[in-house]
Queue: 2 jobs
Job 1
Amino acid sequence: MKKKVVSLMLVAAMAATLFAGCGNKTEETQTPDAAPSTEAQTADADATADAAADAVGGDLADKKVGVCIYQFSDNFMTLFRGELENYLVSQGFSKDNITIVDGANDQATQTGQIDNFIAEGVDVLIINPVNSSSAETITDKVVEAGIPLVYINREPSADEEARWEENGWNVTYVGCDARQSGTMQGEMIVDLGLETVDLNGDGKIQYIMVEGDPENVDAQYRTEFSVKALTDAGLDVDCLTDQVGNWQQDQAQQIVANALGQYGNDIEVVFCNNDAMALGALQAIESAGRTVGTDIYLVGVDALSEALENVLSGKMTGTVFNDHFSQSHSAADAAIKFLNGETNEYYIGCDYVKVTADNAQEILDMVK
Ligand code: BGC
């Protein structure tokens, strides 16, 4: 297990330097601010599906789809794969021809699953890679087999995406820009105002960061851009510790429990790269007798139902809706276009939505 522990002394010494998760990097933020309405997304999806179904003359029922998920136990990817399967079926695929496999967070296992799908002769592959850095090898074998490929959730490198375009391959990536979600997390803290968040009155925001898998660009960007939103707003920040919770609730609970033991009331904000880890953080916060919204602030990403309930009851400051409907529908639509002999853009994006107590009910109604 990779683990990053940053000591208080080190942070003090390096506060102003570049430091993974605890530094002030200065990249351009891309923060599209308008999220498409659900009605609009559904209407778009229906229109695309109708057009695709007409064009292939109902052939989708005979097409075999192989879906590789990096790990079934991941809460967010569970929502994603459920919606992906439902949507594929609603577009005319037969449930029997959709095979979804669990990579068990092991690239060798997933590579074997991809080899099996190729041997079986699936018509299209949708892949959530265990390691984004394995994309080049995966792409090569899938393209060689003449199978169109839609990557989801874990974005391959810019060089890898450029290769698809240069070669005109039937490969695309569907996902959201995690810089946007990180920025939204930071903005929710900024919106509370320094007076509210700076509980110890030292003019700085003391925070801890709980990161997802650092191999994953979503974790890297959320870590960087959540803090950047604070510094962009002119706030001084002080990173007490930045550790890897691998997207998992139990690991985050342990990290935050330890941090609360070490830094106590100095912790003003807990940033978690996803909601599963925010739920773990909340358990640790409550066990330590601290109260979110009163003497500590907590933000996550994904908008899991449980996190939304917590935002509504004030146990979490906010979260960011990671739209699994839009992403799974776009992935399926891209697959349909490939099957239909059409091309896709090489990057298909989607917008995150900031969630506070003001709109949490609306999002909860949508995801439940
Ligand atoms: C989600 C995480 C999830 C990860 C898996 C991220 O976009 O926010 O909850 O664990 O994807 O790759």
Job 2
Amino acid sequence: MGVDMTALVLAAGEGKRMRSRTAKVLHKVNGRAMIDHVLSALALCPIDAVLVVTGHDAESVEKHLAGRAVCVRQTEQLGTAHAVMQARELLVGKPGHVIVLCGDTPLLRASTLQDFVQRHVESGAAASVLTAEVPNPFGYGRILRNAMGQISKIVEEADADPATKAIREINAGIYCFQIPPLLSALDSITTDNEQGEYYLTDVIPIMLDSGLPVAAKKVNDAEEILGVNNRRQLAAAEQIMRQRTLDGLMDAGVTIIDPAHTYVQAGVQVGQDTVLYPGTILEGETVIGRDCQIGPGVRLIDCHVGDQCRLEQLLAIESVLGNGVTAGPFTYLRPGTRLGDEVKIGGFVEVKNSRVGEKSKIPHLSYVGDADIGAGVNIGAGVIVVNYDGKTKHRTIIEDGAFVGCNVNLVAPVTVGRGAYVAAGSTVTRDVAPGSLAIARARQETKKDWARKFRHR
Ligand code: UD1
Ligand code: CA
């Protein structure tokens, strides 16, 4: 746009109604702090610098924002205009505009902000206010317009008479200002109102009185400006954000059997024709390929899943799965798990920090930790990789085509060579050469006629 644009995010308020020991703007919606949603929307706008006004629990908020925004403290919260005044030093002498918004409106879309900023700049207004028409305006500032339909004033709930309270056009709390007239208007603001606060909204009539043009732009989707003041609104925001993410996936060709019971964080990618069953939770940097069946009951955190995988009743964290992998039910894949194409991991199996080569199978009741398993390996039921000696973790290597019988303990560090067999029930402590058979169990003894004698004792 070629215009100087600064953003100022107000985040000093206490957020009393949250009844929380955590700063309001750090409460999460769809897995991310509310203020991060606001910063993400701003990041897609042509903005040169982001300033954040902190106050209540400033240390946590500033720590959270470290390196991403310049913070200014408001030690006493005397109102929204007072909050803006705290940034005076950083704004004075700057040309251009400042967009002022709140840290507790996580649903605001970048496109809405971009459009608002552009219209403001093009209009030449000294101030632009974003407004919304809502069914229940309670608690918001009401927009008063003159006979020409132009904004004249904003009246807070506490200061409104019954006729004003009936107005359903409200102040979203998002503004664009030309910096010099904003700074001079702030000087004229008083606390002459019901709440004894410095209201930022008072700059509107002040500017109009000085003959400056002021604009108001109504947002299309009033949902976007929902301000989160309590935990109910937090849940409402969560619900809306979740539906948006799911709608995006469905529009891109993903089937979601029951959106009310599917949870996908923004940023997760899911390929075409993949089906998400109820109870699916996809988080973090997770990426899923095409034609997969995910769920019921699957939680993936920072996982990469290939195409045509079938996962059911499983928790996986920081794991990478190739194409055509089947896993579950009741499977736990811990960080560092790498499964090759067409690997099968069955019920009650836990895998950690291990590679499993293509077409290998670990179908039943196993623990595999710190192991490198080749391709085409069969791991029998109940095999345990004994990776920890009480002090250190050691690695186990199972080469291509090996067959490990049921109920085997592989005591690391140990290698089972290519194509070797390990007899069921063995506890293997020494390397097994390629192509050989290892039996490491007590030889069976059978006492003839023992049972009859025992019974007639
Ligand atoms: C404000 C607006 C109201 C608008 C509503 C939209 C004023 C006077 N009123 O009311 O017209 O409809 O937002 O949600 O501006 N903050 C500070 N320091 C302060 C006071 C507030 O940083 O001293 C921050 C809060 O953390 C919050 C934002 O400013 O992020 C808005 O404050 P809040 O008290 O929620 O204002 P509302 O009463 O909701
Ligand atoms: Ca508010």
